[in-house]
Specification:
Number of strands: 8
CATH class of the largest domain: Mainly Alpha
CATH superfamily of the largest domain: Winged helix-like DNA-binding domain superfamily/Winged helix DNA-binding domain
Strand content: 15-25%
Shape: elongated
Structural class: alpha+beta
Largest sheet: 3 strands, antiparallel
Distance between the termini: 47 Å
Helix content: 40-55%
Radius of gyration: 21 Å
Number of helices: 6
């Protein structure tokens, strides 16, 4: 748990929260308004997990929902901030959420591993056919495969991670900004 102090509308509020909650709210110190997608990409956290984390702060009056997927700090609306709740209640709620997230994150990690293996299979095939390709071309080709399959959607940041992992494992090399299979993988 992380102890943080938030100043909003001249009031100092203290919270003991899991690290992800603390990181999330600190992003709102950098920028007042975030879309769920933008924040999810920035933090590399699944939107469903992030929405639950954001709702924690909305319920405490620190953030408010502008639109379905946009949230902002609540400084402009001082009357909507509830009085600080009992810390033990907050702590218990955070611990429950953290335990639930651990279970969900295990399942998400397993799904991510499975997806990464599937993407790696396609990437290997592309590189066997084209010898070497730049990152953006690999991404565009994967998107073309994904037109009829929502499971095949991949963010550029996720693709970078997959490619970098395979470079580190010695399966790929980067030459002139293009990814290429090592001789062992051909």
């Amino acid at each position: 748990m992380v102890k943080i102090e938030i100043e909003i509308n001249g009031k100092n509020l203290e919270f003991k929260v899991p690290p992800l909650q603390a990181t999330l709210i600190l992003h709102f110190a950098e920028k007042d308004v975030w879309s769920l997608t933008e924040l999810s990409n920035h933090m590399l956290v699944a939107p469903t997990v992030l929405r639950r984390k954001i709702l924690f702060w909305v319920q405490r009056g620190i953030l408010r929902q502008c639109t379905m997927d946009t949230f902002m700090t609540n400084e402009k609306h001082p009357n909507s901030i509830p009085p600080p709740s009992d810390i033990s209640t907050c702590l218990a709620a955070c611990e429950e959420e953290e335990e639930e997230d651990k279970t969900n994150s295990d399942a998400e990690q397993e799904k991510r591993k499975k997806d990464n293996k599937m993407f790696w299979f396609y990437i290997k095939g592309m590189l066997k056919n084209f010898q070497s390709l730049p990152l953006d071309r690999i991404h565009k080709m994967l998107q073309m495969f994904a037109i009829n399959d929502s499971n095949m959607q991949i963010e550029l940041s996720q693709l970078k991670r997959i490619l970098n992992e395979n470079v580190q494992q010695g399966y790929l090399v980067i030459e002139a900004g293009k990814f290429k299979l090592t001789d062992d993988m051909k």
